[in-house]
């Protein structure tokens, strides 16, 4: 489950930058707890320093957070219906200032990985 948290964290906290197509735009601290027998008992993740300005502004060769493009990928059309949005990124100025596609990233596949991560982590459909 600890490893499976990564696709969800990356979807909401990573974006394309000039130097890296999957650049982390936040910090994370993972605390792992072991039981008296030495076996993994639990873990918690603290996030900090999210680059909030990226939500409203991106340079031409950069991109907003991956989650926006994953949702618009149409891999789960019911999301578009539920959110009352189109799958055209150019309909939304906050995400179309920079790149809208990245050759090394398949947003449809990544949305399915993000959705699966939420399932593994125990999120209910309403929480997702």
UniProtKB/TrEMBL annotation:
The keyword Amino-acid biosynthesis does not apply. PROSITE patterns: MYOSIN_MOTOR. InterPro entries: Kinesin_motor_dom_sf, Myosin_head_motor_dom-like, P-loop_NTPase. One of its GO terms (molecular function) is ATP binding. Keywords: Actin-binding, ATP-binding, Coiled coil, Motor protein, Myosin, Nucleotide-binding. Residues 1-128 form the Myosin motor domain. One of its GO terms (biological process) is system development. It holds the Pfam family Myosin_head. GO terms for cellular component: cytoplasm; membrane; myosin complex. Belongs to the TRAFAC class myosin-kinesin ATPase superfamily. Myosin family. This is Myosin heavy chain 6. It comes from Potamorhina latior.
């Amino acid at each position: 489950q600890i490893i499976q948290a990564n696709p969800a964290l990356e979807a909401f906290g990573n974006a394309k930058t000039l130097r890296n197509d999957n650049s982390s735009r936040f910090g994370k601290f993972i605390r792992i707890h072991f039981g008296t027998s030495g076996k993994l008992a639990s873990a918690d993740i603290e996030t900090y320093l999210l680059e909030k300005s990226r939500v409203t502004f991106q340079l031409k060769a950069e991109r907003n957070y991956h989650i926006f493009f994953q949702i618009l990928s149409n891999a789960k059309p019911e999301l578009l219906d539920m959110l009352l949005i189109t799958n055209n990124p150019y309909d939304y100025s906050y995400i179309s200032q920079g790149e809208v596609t990245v050759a090394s990233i398949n947003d449809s596949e990544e949305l399915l990985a993000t959705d699966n991560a939420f399932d593994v982590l125990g999120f209910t459909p309403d929480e997702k």
